[in-house]
Design a protein that fits this description.
oxidoreductase activity, acting on the CH-NH group of donors, NAD or NADP as acceptor, mainly beta, Pnp Oxidase, Chain A, Flavin_Rdtase-like_dom, seven-stranded antiparallel sheet
Length: 189
């Protein structure tokens, strides 16, 4: 029998997304967001939800752009720090030693160290309560060559993206392939 836990944000897993922006003064900032994911296939779009109090909020509204880097275990401490410190008072790139790269397709920076980066143009904004959801059309995806599989696409086991446990506030990694999508369920067709 299931036990009621009430209305909580208990979705498993959630991604650890590194949102890159430039503020009014042109200062690069990076923040960690776990409330996000793919929200449309055509055009390809990703959504991230931020509180209005976050420094990155106004930057996305003003610049109409942001990047999303995929955090991995090698830079877990940097990702954690970027979610705790505010870009209003801290130079998160400088403190962590992450390398700022200016996107060549949108008005936003990203960290070179994260192996996969989505460069996004803001297309929609939705006020949802204490969070605002920003929907960005993915204009380009950049990936480190050593994370690509033989098919030329990112290999999740090579990326080793961080995933966030919303219940216990912990970081985890992905495990081995359990089955192929659009295949294992065919036995019920």
């Amino acid at each position: 029998m299931k036990q009621s836990l009430g209305a909580k944000t208990l979705l498993f897993p959630t991604p650890v997304l590194m949102v890159g922006t430039y503020d009014k003064a042109g200062k690069p900032n990076i923040m960690t967001a776990a409330w996000g994911g793919v929200c449309c296939s055509e055009p390809p779009c990703i959504a991230v939800s931020l509180r209005k109090s976050r420094h990155s909020y106004d930057s996305i509204v003003e610049r109409k752009a942001f990047t999303v880097g995929i955090a991995n275990g090698a830079y877990m401490a940097e990702a954690d720090y970027a979610g705790m410190a505010s870009g209003r008072s801290a130079d998160k790139f400088g403190v962590t030693g992450l390398t700022v790269v200016r996107s060549d397709v949108v008005d936003a920076p990203y960290a070179e160290e994260y192996p996969l980066v989505l460069e996004c143009r803001l297309v929609h904004t939705f006020d949802l309560g204490i969070h605002t959801q920003f929907v960005g059309e993915i204009i380009d995806v950049k990936a480190d060559r050593d994370t690509l599989g033989e098919d030329g696409l990112p290999d999740i086991l090579k990326l080793q993206p961080l995933i966030y446990d919303t219940a216990h506030k912990g970081y985890h990694a992905v495990g081995p392939l359990l089955g192929k999508a659009y295949s294992v369920g065919r036995k019920f067709m």
